[in-house]
Amino acid sequence: MRRTICLVAALLPFAGMAQTGKKEYPRNYFRNPLNIPILLAGNFGECRSGHFHSGLDIKTQGKENLPVYAAAEGYISRIKTEKGGFGHAIYITHPNGYTTVYAHLNKFTPYLQTYLRKQQYQRSRWDLDLPLSPAQFPVKKGQQIAWSGNTGGSSAPHLHFEIRDSETEHPLNPQLFGLTVADDVSPVIHDIVLYTGNVYEDEKLVVSMVKKGSQYKPARTSNSSYKIKGENVQVPSGMTGIGVSVDDYMNGSSNTITFYQARLFIDGALQSEVTLDNISYSVSRYMHAYTDYKMHEENHKWVQCFFRLPGNKLRSIYSELNKDDGRVLLGSDTTFHELRVEIEDNNGNVSEASMILDPQRGDTTTVEAPDDCNSKVPYDKLYEYRAPAISFTLSSGHLYDDICMDVKTQPAPDALSDRFQVHYPYVPVHSYFDLKLKPNKTIPIELKSKVVLMYSDGKDEDGRDASLSDQGWYKARVRNFGSYWLALDTTAPVITTLHKDGASLSKTGRILLTVKDAMTSVHKFSGYIDDVWVCFEQHRNSFFYEFDEHCLRGKHHLMFKAEDENGNESRFEMDFSR
User: Fold this and answer.
1) Quick one: which of 16, 24, 86 has its CA closest to 51?
2) Exposed end of the chain (fewer CB within 10 Å): N or C?
3) How far apart are CA 135 and CA 463, in angstroms?
4) Do 393 and 328 belong to one domain?
């Protein structure tokens, strides 16, 4: 996948800091949290689904349970366990104003693991977020705190490592703190994209920089320089936005990573500069406004834009921006213009691409909605859609740019309602909004709590509980455009295991179950051994209990319950011995 670039924000000066770009950070204060060289599966600022990546994904040699060490002196200020996200995570607050985060862990060191288990059993729940005082668990630099793992939203064993500003809690770029990452590989520029209209329309020109058979064939003058020679790139005159598709790499790894800074020049004048450094979680979803979301949804390619959409509130990533929010005005006098893009990674390796733009006289462009739009939705105003069987409201902040709303209705004989196409999945929505649908079939009173709102983006389907609203409407909160319809969910989750009833599990060390729900998700679950609650944990569809002092050696009876979003419950029972 194509990767990204992004931003800079300020920190207080600190004694002994070295300068990187425009900001200063303490170098050599934090150590590598592992005892192996840093190889990255991902770095700070990469475009991920719904957010910028907030730290370093450090490879753990394809395995779990490597020792994890405190990157500097401080105290463990927070521990967290959750089914998604960071999974098992530790937060260490340091006296120099920073906090480090260690995520996707398997287990904490014994003193911390014992404390966590005590809290879990006291509260009869495994997912906890526990704040800790400075006196509870002080640590020294290099002290082991955990073992690496693959918990939470992780898809392969690795350690997610962050450095945050303790006051603002903003994640910062760990590579700017002097951590050794071997990298003398220059970024690879794949495409330059010129937008002559709305990002979500097809008014764009893609100039391929490295692929054969492109309309404009680049000359790669070195490993890090690309130049279109022999032909001028013809573009419509008028206001044009520019984006870039890039990949970076490091020594010893085939994983793509992202970049630190990107600069756009027209005729030698800097038009836009994007610097990746400090991105708050509260604005991380504006990554969808920074990128060509449609390009990613349809082609699985991240294109990062040098211009700012009007609804993009992640403004500080643009460390330099011209008066037209990064767009460039190509005159109608057919004057040639030189476009040049520079991409720099965290180790100072730079690549550039250049071409000559030939604006075509009389072919002007606009970012306005089409003239025949009968349902224009301004990004900064309230919009209400009301029809006999569908209703929703978008307010200022839901969209990044004006759109021409398109809602279509199709019969759905097997559903409880018609199927409604609410605009297009390739147009992003920033925050949740209420969507109401009215069924076209009679729903018995005893089944009204079993109604789900189903969603499809054309590739996958999923559902969520829909609550009965006023006058027979069913409502759910959604955050995507696409197809929606009402359905009935009376099927309980399916619980399975590879353990045989009555088997001895002394060698396995754990009980492992799989729970799947056909339409929604597992909303609640709990496990009991001999009628006493025990701490089952969840990792995607897997639910496991690791034997502890709450299950002594001998014969036992397990009862496990799982309930979906509509209250459909399954129970699984099994006799076993430990």
Assistant:
1) 86
2) N
3) 45
4) no
Q: Answer yes or no: is 386 within a domain.
A: yes
* Residue 341 pLDDT > 70: yes
Do residue 161 and residue 213 come from a single domain? Answer: no
> Coil, strand or helix: which one is 396?
coil
Whole-number CA gyration radius for the chain:
27
Same domain, 55 and 130: yes
pLDDT tens column, 549-575: 999 999 999 999 999 999 999 999 999
Is pLDDT above 70 for 278? yes
Contact, 30 vs 95, CB < 8 A?
A: no
Query: Which domain-ending residue is among 427, 454, 488?
Result: 488
- Residues forming beta bridges with residue 377, ordered by sequence position: 403
Same domain for 42 and 104?
yes
SS3 for 394? strand
Token pair, residue 67, equals 């020792």
Structurally, how many domains does the chain consist of?
4
Does 188 score more than 70 pLDDT?
yes
Write the pLDDT tens digit of every residue in 202-222: 789 988 887 655 567 676 677
Mean of the pLDDT values across residues 62-66? 97
Query: What is the domain-level CATH number for residue 504?
Result: 2.60.40.1220
**Pairing mode of beta strands 510-516, 494-496:** antiparallel
354-380 as b/e, with b when 16 or more CB fall inside 10 Å? bbebbbeeeeebebebeeeeeeebbbe
Mean pLDDT taken over the chain = 91
Q: Are 479 and 398 spatial neighbours (Cβ–Cβ below 8 Å)?
A: no
In angstroms, the CA 124 to CA 284 distance is 33
Domain region containing 334: 188-360
